[in-house]
Amino acid sequence: MSQDVAAAPRARAAQDTVADAAATPERAQPFAALGLTADEYARIARLLGRRPTDAELAIYSVMWSEHCSYKSSRKHLRQFADKAPATDVLLAGIGQNAGVVDIGQGYAVTFKIESHNHPSYVEPFQGAATGVGGIVRDILAMGARPVAVMDALRFGPADAPDTRRVLPGVVSGISFYGNCLGLPNIGGELAFDPCYAGNPLVNALCVGVLRHEDLKLAAATGPGNQVILFGSRTGPDGIGGASVLASASFGGTGEGAKRPSVQVGDPFMEKLLVECCLELYRTGLVIGIQDLGAAGVACATTELAAGGGTGMRVRLDSVPLRDASLGPAEILMSESQERMMAIIEPGHVPAFMDICAKWDVQATVIGEVTDTGRLEMSWQGVQVVDIPPGSAADSGPVYDRPAHRPATQDELLAADPGRLPLPAAGRDLRADLLLLLGSPEGGDKTWVTEQYDHYVRGDTVLAMPHDAGLVRIDAETGLGVALATDGNGRYCQLDPYAGTQLALAEAYRNVAVTGARPLAVTNCLNFGSPEDPAVMWQFTEAVRGLADGCQQLGIPVTGGNVSFYNQTGGTPIQPTPVVGVLGVHDDVRCRTVSGFTAAGASVVLLGDTRPEFGGSLWAWLRHGHLGGRPPAVDLDAEKALAGLLAVAAARGLLLAAHDLSDGGLALALAESCLSGGTGCVIQPPADAAVFLFSESAGRAVVAAWPDALPDLVSACAAAGVSAAVIGTTGGPALELTGLFSVPLADLATAHRAALPALFG
Amino acid sequence: MTARIGVVTFPGSLDDRDARRAVRRAGAEPVELWHDDASLHGVDGVVLPGGFSYGDYLRCGAIARFAPVMRQIIEAAGRGLPVLGICNGFQILCEAHLLPGALARNAGLHFVTRDVTIRIENDTSAWTRQYRAGQHIRVVLKSGEGAYMADPQTLASIEANGQVLARYASGNPNGSQRDIAGVISEAGNVAGLMPHPEHAIDELTGPSADGIGFFASVLQAVAIR
How many CB atoms lie under 10 A from the CB of residue A501? Predict the structure, then answer.
């Protein structure tokens, strides 16, 4: 079918060839409209020894974009490698499509989180859907079977009119794509803050599983090997930038040159592509593979050739098209979804094609690997690209942008929440509990999570509303992986270094409460404009905080993603690094759940509680206050707590364990009562408001049978974790003796009300 | 000899692996059937699993109904072969006219994933004979187009014939008429169920182990047959 389209007669102007570029150095090119600076344009000309052709300019403009080149962040991200703890769990690290971690028994997992913020604001449904599709292909490209997804979402105020446009669209986009693809959605986050009103955050995570020997790398090796593009045809999706070239080349200026800027997803095609790739991998025919994401064919060809240290010759007119009017620059930049590129020995092409045909996946040989060290592309018999592939993939500009701590930071820190009046009377404490529990931030997220299939594949052991998702990898041995993502813009606004470490600590703790051992970290760094020194300061502090934190916890960063320019006018979002932690569970049958499922167990608070309300949910919701310092970070204490939780789970000491974070002990107790369907009676200390609403880090609430309590207490002592028995599970209410009691039914009504009331 | 139960994989099938696991757990041998197969390879029963066959293009199940393997299944079902369609499989069986009625968009217009309690109404079919009529079981519902619909005459006749297999008993999650969660053919061998029994075979990964009864039932039915 592709041949028909390719052969269709097309009216087009003459292409800007390599010879033309050499002959007409003075020709003006629209580099600025493509997002390149004059310096960057000059750098391209220096690298090539001539001006670029239009098609080459298209390649450099996308490869040197902030999104693909990390030009503003690269200098700082090096810390993740420089400070990486000594570890033998990493099979592939930063720079690959996704990091790969050894989890034992011959298995490895690969996981990564990526942003799709801007597309999701423009077109929430397709923006979010293709965000899922993109991250799944990253995982697939490593040779892994994708086994689960998660989503970290942030929106403007829940009751803002635009949130009613964006949130339901994003959620149904994720539901549409993920459900149809057959990947369980096992968790994530949902947060609201006015700072995200014009910049919602849609961060999608995928995790995949492979055997060690199945690892695939993005490298085009072996001159003479064939380059195959397979999956969907290429259309005019997501090439706003290329339209500039098109109109410049064709002399068009009006609406006719405009293209849709958001890609459209087809999860059915992605499902076929996943199964097709996995079958291809099993044959051992695949030498190198790369997914097509941002920057499409431009990115895949340059990265494969650069990765292999080879060259590549590509016939752009062989690319199967959905729109026959596309020119070479547009083909190179198109972000059409559900496409992959593979490197195959010539003799294996027929076998490759047979498997693609079985899955109804279109596959086309578009070129071959060469030993020239050049990426050469032709279009209708003329040469339109001739560049060293590394110059686009690896030699992009690197900026050391100015970073200054803004003066307003001192005012923010000085606004001490210690001055806020704390509730003391039972009815006031009760009212504040219900305020938090009934808010969109603290309330039940079922309205969202019910739209996601978390059962498909039959290996989901824990999903929402548990602290972490837990997926079984091997049914015989019970080996599994736990995953959690966390971020807190309020904490990071107050102190981006500590706030990022708190996000790391929370994700680490969320994994640990299930009984899993935290192993590796991914991150999605959502910030405003890097050209704003105050934002750049937030960014550098966050990266430093994460690198230092991972070093101290002894778990490496395996990869991640940076999303800049999340700002409306001059106002950036709160710095929002979202940290994903992956842990390994030796036997998922011993997992710890978060709910109180039976009466008669002792409720034990682990860790130390201090009066810490800076950036807390209570201060924000009760007083509209954001100031002071975020909770203190103690990563050694986090490590001790995580170790204890793993031991306690393995020894079967715990009925339940739940992490304490936003909303403190109050929200944690309410959630454990509701998810397990059992109340509890708690004896509060004198400073009940601190006890209930402080957000001191390094804490968890657990339930243990009375006969296991001595064991638990001695394990805590051995680990250096403070433990206080604060009550007992059972009864029809959440009761704080002498203060208040809320029947479970009332608790449930308050908890479940917020989102359905707003979104139907 | 163990019963051999075929599980069909259409392009876009998702719960085929889970269905095979449930078949194995019940003690039968799962046999992979491909949408393009011209033979059923001598299986003793067939499960059409959940998913989005052919991407739900046109209408759920509308394209799968014409897959080559369906020709064999329709013919074999006429001869009494036990067939169970789960979720998308139920939609395919309705499109193939092996079962009465149709599945429409959920009343709430959203995809719904929820643990539901269903009441078994017919305990004599090939797929439910290990349950008791009136028994409540806990299974998983996960669908966007799960609202069971039929015209008044059809509804009256399936009620009169005992063709209602199961009803939702913990609230109606999707607007199904008369809370119908599953139906069965007049002959009692072809069953369609919107919720997923294959996701309720183990308390570790599902809300209960109640769903295994569907697969154990067909083993028994095959042994007698």
Answer: 31
